[in-house]
Amino acid sequence: MAADELRARFLRDRVMTASPAQRVVMIYDRLNLDLARAAAAVDDPAEAGAQLAHAMQIVTELHSSLDTAAGGPADNLSSIYAFLIRELIAIRGGQTQRLPAVIEMVTGLREAWATAAEQVVREPASLGAAAGAWVG
After folding, report:
1. How far is 105 from 101, CA to CA, in rounded Å?
2. How far is it, in rounded angstroms, from Cα 74 to Cα 76?
């Protein structure tokens, strides 16, 4: 098997065995990668634009996947994602000075999701019981 095939298989297996929260962390990792590549491509507007376009696709997908009818955290995340989309549009329009703040925000969101994912792994029974209390 070629190295590219092995890498693709490893990544596919990693995603398939990850919990939903771990998958969100992976999505944020890719979003951070896109933003870092855009920041590194300041001398290549086409490349920076391509990276920012992919970042916008990710944020748009995160935004559209929310169940805002549930309210609470989903509403808060919806507002954050809408803000990030507006910022990414402004950055693509030439306001590159806004990129560091977006990177900082996305990094903070990623860390929050990573913490939540770790907590689910460490305390699945207690979290399940707490969730049952809300539904029941």
Report:
1. 6
2. 5
